[in-house]
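Worked Example 4.2. Read the sequence first, then its structure tokens.
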Amino acid sequence: MAKEITIEELRTMARRAGLPLPDDELLRLLPGVKRAQSQAAALRELFTNAAEPATIFTTFKIDLK
């Protein structure tokens, strides 16, 4: 799992996005950001490069008669 985000890192990301948020707002956002980070990591574990795609795209016309 990825390293947990800190308040300092969240502040930096917010400023880069043009959101100069006060510390009290960042502290309220931090639990949700950590939860989203954890959920994204869990999803990444489900998908591997070894898994075949569910569908195949083709540009050829297929007659299904």
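Now turn to a second chain, presented in exactly the same format:
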Amino acid sequence: MAEYEYRVTGRVSRIKGTCSAGHKEGDEFDFSSSLAPPLCAGFFHDIWPWVQIFRSGGSLPYLKDPDFLVLQCPDFQNCLRIELRRIKQAQG
């Protein structure tokens, strides 16, 4: 398993409507493992590229905070918003 320099976490910050996967505001996910967290598969598929950029130390030049990104679920009628945070791992 690859060791990444950064840990990435996600927190559901808002839901408009009812999430069909049962997610609630405040739900938290850890994207640091090679296993997918218990997140809706469609949403996970959409956010995976950004998770990988964060995990590998890449940058998105349009972000005000290079370690924080807000993404939305593709279900526009029951839109869920997740906040991704990147945390530098301690070197051991």
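Notes for the reader: DSSP finds one helix and four strands in the chain. Residues 6-88 form one domain.
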